[in-house]
Amino acid sequence: MKVKVLVLAIGCAMMSFGGYAQKGVDSGTPFGHGEDSVRCITNISLFVPYAKSGNFKDAYEFWKKAYDECPGAHKDIYLYGARIYGWQISNAKDAAKKNALINDLMAMYDKRIKYFGDDQRYGKNWIIANKLQDYVQYMGDAADNKTIYNWSKAAMGEFGDDTESGTVNMFAFASFKMMQKDPNLKPQYIQDYLKCSAIFERQLKDAQTANNNKLETALTAYKSTLDATFANSGAADCETLQKMYSSKVEEVKNDLPKLKEIISLLRRVRCQEIDAFYTAGAYAYKLEPSADAALGIAKQAVKVKDYDKAMQYFEEAAKMETANKEKAEDYYLIAVISYEQGNNSKSRQYCLKAIETNGSYGDPYILIGNLYAKSARSIYPDDPVLAKAVYYAAIDKFEKAKAVDSSCAAEANKLISTYRAHLPSTEEIFMHPDLGKGKPFRIGGWIGETVIVR
Predict the structure, then answer these.
(1) Is 90 exceeded by the pLDDT of residue 80?
(2) Over 60: is that where the pLDDT of 226 sits?
């Protein structure tokens, strides 16, 4: 009843406009002129209530007239137009019809850019992100990654660091899928990854500065997915990266930001044993000492067996690290070198520093356990039973390793099984005055730990 009254009222109003009429799409005005402007307002007034209530069937005819005749009249034409097309696409039975509707929806987003692309809040940047989202949603597995790539690339070229995060995410994923299909695109994918990573890092800093926790959470999720996809992509194999960056490092040896970018990438994908990483680190350290640069020098020193230099720069790296995980890794690498040199107490010292820095790091516990097992006979050269008792301490460390770090579980369990088979037997414990089942036993020598005999 209300709709009929509204139509009647507007119909009466049209009589006052005389004969002159021109559609908005023809005149370049939002509503048009004369009778056409009234018809535009009428159609908008009629389709909005229907669409708002989810009655897209009755909304369609009025919406389509407004969309065709006065596309610059109001953003509601596009807000509800996306929903109407979505309803039609979801109900399309024929594949050809569905594809045609998706094309119409994409064209509608382009038209929105034409008329409302300069909107302060929901302008071109936002519109492209939503266009991409709808394209992927409705096309599903049939979505063309090259199309996604080109649309998002154009947006990133225009908006740079301000590109909508959803668009950046789409760009990275499309690049990844294209690389999967054509391995020759590995270099392109790596460059695309770096570009997206830099944008997300910049946006994360801005979100943190603005205390926008919701945005920070969303961006962190995007960045984590981006990094995980890259790390597992196969593009990040060290041989490929060495070929890519061996000459590039020389080209940018005086460009600190570029060197940092290369070092960060190689470290992130665990390609720290290649010449490109070593060389980039050395050049970067000359320009500005940093943890990553020091790490590169240390790794190179290990390669040429200059262990004193290696430990010096691992120590330097640890001092400059800001993240505990990386700092702990630097300490652990010093522990590994000390182990190889036979300096057991120093090796344990740096293992403990690594554990103190990162309590969920299992490798240092495994190394300490191996140190203890290796020392068993030297601590008790004349008593093979007590030498076996040292394995209790080793097993304790292996147990601790898998308790704090599940990634160490397989290695820890293997070592536990190996050394458990060599523990003192029940008869040996019974016959040995220093040992008692269930009682503490103090291990001597440099170990100096108390264990429970079991």
Answers:
(1) yes
(2) yes
25 pLDDT tier (thresholds 50, 70, 90) = low
How many Å apart are CA 122 and CA 11, to the nearest integer?
A: 33
**Phi, psi (degrees; rounded to nearest 5) at 440:** -75, 150
Residue 439's alpha-carbon distances to 25, 254, 379, 428, 433, in angstroms, are 92, 64, 20, 15, 12
Token pair of 146 as six digits: 């090259």
C-alpha distances in angstroms, 420 versus 385, 398, 399?
14, 11, 12
Question: Contact at 8 Å (CB) between 434 and 443?
Answer: no
Pick from 334, 336, 342: which is nearest to 316 by CA? 334
Are residues 276 and 286 in contact, defined by beta-carbon separation less than 8 angstroms?
no
Q: 452 pairs with which residues across the strands?
A: 440
Residue 28: φ, ψ to 5°: 80, 15
What's the whole-number average pLDDT of the chain? 90
Q: What is the pTM (predicted TM-score) of this model?
A: 0.62
Determine the pLDDT at residue 12: 41
The pLDDT confidence band at residue 13, using thresholds 50, 70 and 90, is very low
Measured between alpha carbons, how far is 390 from 395 in angstroms, rounded to an integer?
9
How far apart CA 312 and CA 321 sit, in angstroms, is 14
> Binning pLDDT at 50, 70 and 90, where does residue 299 land?
confident
Cα–chain center distance at 396: 36
**3-state secondary structure at position 63:** helix
**Alpha carbon 29 to chain centroid distance?**
45
φ/ψ (deg, to 5) at 123: -90, -160
| 433 phi/psi in degrees, rounded to 5 | -65, -25
Q: Give me the residue spans of the domains in the chain.
A: 144-236, 343-454
pLDDT value, residue 11: 45
Strand partners, 206: none
Interatomic CA distance for residues 315 and 309, integer angstroms:
10
Local structure of residue 382 (DSSP, 8 states): T
Q: Residue 359 pLDDT > 70, yes or no?
A: yes
